[in-house]
Amino acid sequence: MTMESLKQLWDEWVLSLKNKKGASGGSGSIKSAQIVYVFGPPGTGKTHHLHRSTCQSFTGDYMTVMHDYHHVDGDIPLKHMCLVPEYKEMAEQMFLEGDWAPHFTELARLTLEGAKDNDKVVISHATDKNDQRDHVIKKLIEGGASEDKITIVQLTIDPKVKARGLYHRTARMAEQSGMTITECCKAFMEFEGEMTEERYIDMCLEAEAENEDFFEVHPKAIMVDISGRDVTHFDNVDKALGLTRSTELPYESICAKVKPIDEARDKIVMESGFMEAFAEILAKAEAQAQKSSLAIEEEGEDEKKAEVMKKRRSTLLKCEVSMRGLSSRALSLRDTSEGVEARRKSLIATGKIFEE
Fold it and tell me: Could you name the domain of life of the organism this protein comes from (predicted)?
């Protein structure tokens, strides 16, 4: 299968979501389909220059390219909230009301739709809680999937490797919004001096230790280590699933095959207005979590300045959530001291931090 045909399949899949339709086919094939549910901690994006997707999405795309799996990216409902109205409702229910069931029920439905025309399906998502994972599995079985044909894979990564990747990701996001990583981080935490790579890693490890139960271990999962940012990622996945690559391509060549799939996904998502819609939901979640008026009012500002302020606030939220994990609960971990809140407001309004 060529990269062009893969991108075309993805475009057709996304277009079908607009009308809440899945792939065509009968339910008879679902029972015989091999389904792999891959989940890993959020914020573990690939640091390789050829790819930047999350570890579980990267794994799903790899299984598509090298092993002919149909990949259901678990972020479809969230990232396509601007294409499918029901998906925006699901996102608001999950982040603002704590009701995650509709989102995960939809993940199961999309997987079952994929299984109608494909005998091998992989669903990837940063699902952190076992009750959410078990909900997906329960819905898969209720929809006709065979329990003995569902394989659960939990990706693990060395915390330092994860934190180092997050540092570069955060620095890049801050730079794109005209800020330094030091300014960005001082908007939600207290520290002296400049934010260095090693300091960032240490602070990430401290935050993870304080919230060590955030990403639960599933008792039925096959544990797969993907700390090596090299071909061992693929080797470990293949070994866990009993897969054999037909060709021994080098790591860079495999990444180059996976990259167009991720780019096609990103293009659709970015053009849909997802970032703005998601930032709006995060801002609401932030206000709920903090019970304060951290959001800056743009009313009365000229349109250009208001847009810049919105972009800065969006960047801060995304950087913070990236560091702590993608959940509205993570926002409650912020340092809410007067100094931090003042710096945050100053940075959003002016692009600079002014401290007394």
Answer: Eukaryota
